[in-house]
Fold:
Amino acid sequence: MSRSDALANVALMYGPIVFGFVLVTWITIASETPVLFRVVALGLCGIGFCLFLIAKISVMKLGTRVSFGSPKMSTRHRRMYRAGYALMIIG
Structure:
C-alpha cells in the first residue's frame, strides 16, 4: 500500500467522524451566537475566495483567459484552488 492510498483510507475512515464533530460545533455556535457564526462564515468564505482568486490569476498569467478546473495549475496553486473551494463551501 502506498502512502497516498494510506492517507486516502484514513480520510475515508475518520472524515465522517471529523465532519460530524465540526457540524455539531457549527450548529452549537449558530444557535448560541448567531452574529459570531455569520462573521466566522463570512471570514471563511473571504479567505477561500482569496485562495481561489490567487490560483486562477496564476492561470491567467499563462495566457489562458477562461479555464475550468485545475489541470493547468502548478501543484501549489492546485492545492490553493481546492482549499479555496473547500473553505467557500464550509463557510
Remarks:
- The helical segments are 3-32, 34-61, 75-90.
- The radius of gyration is 17 Å.
- Residues 6 and 89 are 26 Å apart (CA to CA).
- The chain has three helices and no strands.
